[in-house]
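seq:
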Amino acid sequence: MEAMDLYGRVSGPVQYNFSIPPPFYAAWYAIIFYVLLFLTGVFLFRKWWMLGYQRAESRISERMEVKIQNLAAEKKLSDEMVADILPERTVDQIRKKGKAKWDKYERATVLFSDIQGFTKIAEKLSALQTYDLISERAKRGSRNAFLEAMAQVPAGEIVPGDELPETR
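struct:
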């Protein structure tokens, strides 16, 4: 490097050595910091992702548990209803084999009952609600109402064992 003064004199060449350091954001320690920051971000994102996955899995698990409990309650109810309707021997055969052998009876009484609009009502209710509805309707019935309805049926010969028990 050479310099000139006010009088136009030029000085001899002078050498001056200097270096410009890189900006702080391009230094080796900044690059290491960026890599660590990126890895921390990836780690935290993965943790957040897994936490969301675990929460979703927990919600699904809770829903499944509730559904299993509901199914168990409905199975118990249906087993009770079948046990109320069918003879014990038939129920045992169905539970063990999945089907029952038919039995022959010389005489049997079959009672058909109709609740007006029952099919439409039952389609809108769960099994437990349907059972409660039928139970409530049965409680409202009375022996006198039954006897009045039976009085309208033409009299026939009473078979031994089919007599109505006397009420006290």
